[in-house]
Design the sequence.
């Protein structure tokens, strides 16, 4: 992920994965990189939290909509059919960690 430029803002997107057994962070990362490869999102994201098929994705604020689109288009992780559902978007990670504390 590129370093933050002056004036750059981030968005944090909470998501959950349904239909797959317990996944590792790397399995999901591989699926995201494969899906985002041809989109404007590219590799401009970071998975900041990933536990129990729940995660928080960090993206530049201008790519938030594209990131949500990419998350929604992930349909297979490690060869297993899966569905990624976006829960909420926030400007701070603390808000999402507090709201979804039971899932972490």
Sequence:
């Amino acid at each position: 992920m590129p370093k933050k430029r002056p004036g750059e803002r981030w968005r944090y997107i909470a998501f959950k994965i349904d239909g797959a057994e317990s996944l590792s962070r790397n399995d999901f990362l591989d699926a995201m990189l494969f899906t985002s490869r041809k989109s404007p999102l590219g590799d401009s994201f970071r998975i900041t939290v990933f536990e129990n098929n729940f995660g928080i994705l960090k993206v530049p604020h201008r790519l938030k909509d594209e990131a949500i689109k990419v998350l929604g288009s992930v349909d297979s992780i490690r060869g297993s059919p899966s569905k990624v559902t976006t829960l909420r978007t926030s400007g701070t990670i603390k808000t999402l960690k507090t709201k979804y504390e039971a899932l972490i």
Observations:
- The two ends are 24 Å apart (CA to CA).
- Residues 6 and 60 are 12 Å apart (CA to CA).
